[in-house]
Amino acid sequence: MSIDNRLKAVLDGLAKAHQEGTTAGGSAVLAEAITAYPFDEREGELLSGGIPRGHKALTTATSKLVKAGWITKGRGGWKITQEGLAASAAFPDGASLAAALASGAPVPPLPAEAKARKPRAAANAAQQPKRPADAPKVAAASASAPPVVTEAAPEAAPAPAEVPAQEAAPSFPQPDAVALAGNFAAVLGASDWQPEVEQVQMRLDPSDQLWKLEVDLPAGSYAYKAAINRSWDENYGAYGQRDGANHEIHHAGGPVRFHYDHRTKDVSVH
Asked: How many domains are there within the chain?
């Protein structure tokens, strides 16, 4: 079943985040799972509140992972446990994962090499050069040999300068343009649902790799999608689904800020 495969994708996504030393947001993990295993026609039907039937079913199903002790959910994001890491490695597909959850059978332990593997962030920290603990003692005891002390200092100095270079991450590949095409463009002096008009083009913020648009809208209900490169050829609707249902907001009036994340293909409202 697709929902079992999506549940497996959720667990694997959290395992990947753990190995990279990061924390994943629940909405991002769900969006990736749904992208990997798209909804069928029935699952894509919108329930009250505009939530697809399949999205609600998957969200509910993740409670099984929590009950099994494989993941935890908190304000800081979703995290995988050691038991969950073992489950991710032990069960290769959604069917075997679902069977294990249903039976409550013990999860085979992780191989020794997997237990020893450190998250990327921790590994980087372990590799950073450190000044020897006895360095001050050497300097004090070597007063009679100043050339040795003088040579040691330049060797240690470059080490801190190398750390930022190791931590710097490349920018995420981005499209040339992102537009929020919807039924509010007329308020901005353009035609509704036209992804090429300038009034609905978003701007990329390089600091957080988010596309942003702030507009002032009167009170009302609005629908829109994220259209890529000023065309409908590639577009994303609710929950980051390609060619998915419209995003919808009920706005009280005034400024509203939209953020589009090309990593999740989803839009958030602030």
From this structure: 2
Domain that holds residue 47: 2-116
More confident call, 239 vs 228: 228
Residue of 144, 125, 119 lying closest to 23 (CA atoms): 119
6-41 confidence digits (pLDDT tens): 999 999 999 888 888 888 888 888 999 999 899 999
Q: Are strands 77-80 and 220-228 parallel, antiparallel or unpaired?
A: unpaired
Model confidence over 133-156: pLDDT tens digits? 444 443 443 444 444 444 444 555
For 186-207, the DSSP string reads GGGTS-TT-TT-GGGB-EEETT
* Distance (Å, whole) CA 234 – CA 25: 25
pLDDT above 80: residue 119: no
Strand partners, 52: 46
Asked if 148 and 154 touch (Cβ cutoff 8 Å), the reply is no
Domain end point (choices 96, 116, 136):
116
Decide: 71 and 81 in contact? Cβ < 8 Å. Answer: yes
Strands of 30-153 (E only): list them: 71-74, 77-80
Residue 22's pLDDT is what? Answer: 85
Q: Is residue 128 part of a domain?
A: no
**What SS3 string covers 116-148?**
HCCCHHHHHHHHCCCCCCCHHHHHHHCCCCHHH
